[in-house]
Design goal:
This protein is an alpha+beta fold. The protein has nine helices and 18 strands. It is about 25% helix and about 20% strand. A five-stranded mixed beta sheet has the order 12-13-16-15-17, covered by helices on one side. Strands 1-2-3 form a three-stranded antiparallel beta sheet, with no helix packed on it. The protein has a three-stranded mixed beta sheet with strand order 4-6-5.
């Protein structure tokens, strides 16, 4: 009964009467929650859902992340198909294609307050910036909660081309479950980049994620001059990814600009795609940084959805950019 009361109060804050049809109530997106909505007939039918509000601007999202405070407009899906306990019990709840016409999962988050002394269970997370000092902006508030990733659910699709596993932090490999933060807006943006690349001469681009979510503890290992990571990195908030196109599966950026070399100019092809996507979808604006290849990795592009535009570059010296970058034939030496 208490859960129902909470849900009614939350939904009442966002429900608006749909005057386009008698006896219908539509749930309009609240600020910051434009990815979910519900339309239901007052009587007698169950809810129907506008897919574009759950599937994103790309139409390719296959999951949303909910709690009693976040994405409340998706909670009726949980109630209808899984009951009250699904709102409180963290986990992946697959809907199949019953509700939206495509397979989709509603993923209930573990509350952020479950973290104690920088851990959840045996998994080390560390401390978010807002836990130790004042917030720079609202964009740096603590996450709402964590996706609980297990060996069984790690391959759950979050979109047409990406799964939960694609975004996991690269440490503590033998520890399960793992805990992750991820933004639907980031995944939506990555899908739009794939679409844009296809429209500009790169069909079926395999967009690989070098680094997705980073726990604050893992991020801190690379902060400083040699590591190159920002102390307040957006990766900690689940809305950033370092990406490259890897159609041949060699673990390094492809020669996107066709000049026979692998260098930061190929990452700039991705940057041009980001610019076009943000122009068409200003709600997904964020940072983009071009990075050159090193002995540890090839060139890549950082992309995020922080809410305001930011651009930076860490590229090859001018001499290399004039024609002495790594030839395609030597790309394996960088991986």
């Amino acid at each position: 009964m208490a859960v129902h009361a909470i849900l009614v109060a939350q939904l009442a804050a966002v429900l608006t009467v749909d005057t386009g049809g008698a006896g219908r109530i539509s749930a309009a997106p609240s600020r910051g929650d434009s990815d979910a909505a519900t339309t239901r007939s007052v009587a007698p039918a169950a809810p129907t859902y506008r897919p574009e509000w759950l599937l994103g601007s790309s139409g390719k999202l296959r999951a949303c992340f909910v709690s009693e405070e976040r994405n409340v407009l998706a909670i009726p899906l949980l109630l209808r198909y899984f009951g009250d306990s699904a709102v409180r019990r963290p986990g992946v709840y697959p809907l199949g294609d019953t509700a939206l016409g495509t397979p989709f999962s509603v993923i209930t988050l573990l509350p952020f307050k479950s973290k104690a002394r920088g851990r959840v269970g045996g998994y080390r997370l560390g401390w978010w910036p807002g836990e130790r000092r004042g917030l720079r902006t609202e964009a740096y508030e603590n996450p709402d909660g964590f996706i609980v990733v297990t060996p069984e659910n790690q391959y759950t699709p979050v979109s047409e081309h990406f799964t939960l596993r694609d975004f996991l932090t690269h440490d503590q490999e033998g520890i399960w479950p793992k805990y992750m933060v991820l933004s639907e807006a980031l995944v939506d943006k990555l899908e739009l980049i794939i679409d844009d690349l296809a429209a500009h001469g790169h069909p079926n681009a395999h967009l690989a994620i070098m680094s997705g979510f980073r726990t604050p503890e893992y991020n801190s290992l690379g902060v400083g001059h040699h590591g190159g990571r920002a102390r307040d990195s957006r990766h900690q908030f689940g809305d950033a990814a370092d990406i490259y196109v890897d159609n041949d599966g060699d673990g390094i950026m492809d020669d996107l600009n066709g000049d026979g070399r692998i260098d930061s100019r190929d990452a700039r092809v991705l940057l041009a795609s980001v610019e076009r996507v943000e122009a068409a979808h200003p709600e997904l604006v964020g940072g983009a940084g071009v990075y050159r290849g090193t002995r540890m990795h090839g060139p890549f592009l950082h992309v995020d959805v922080r809410g305001d535009p930011a651009r930076w570059a860490n590229e090859e010296p001018a001499r290399r950019r004039r024609g002495h970058a790594t030839p395609v034939s030597a790309r394996k030496k960088l991986s």
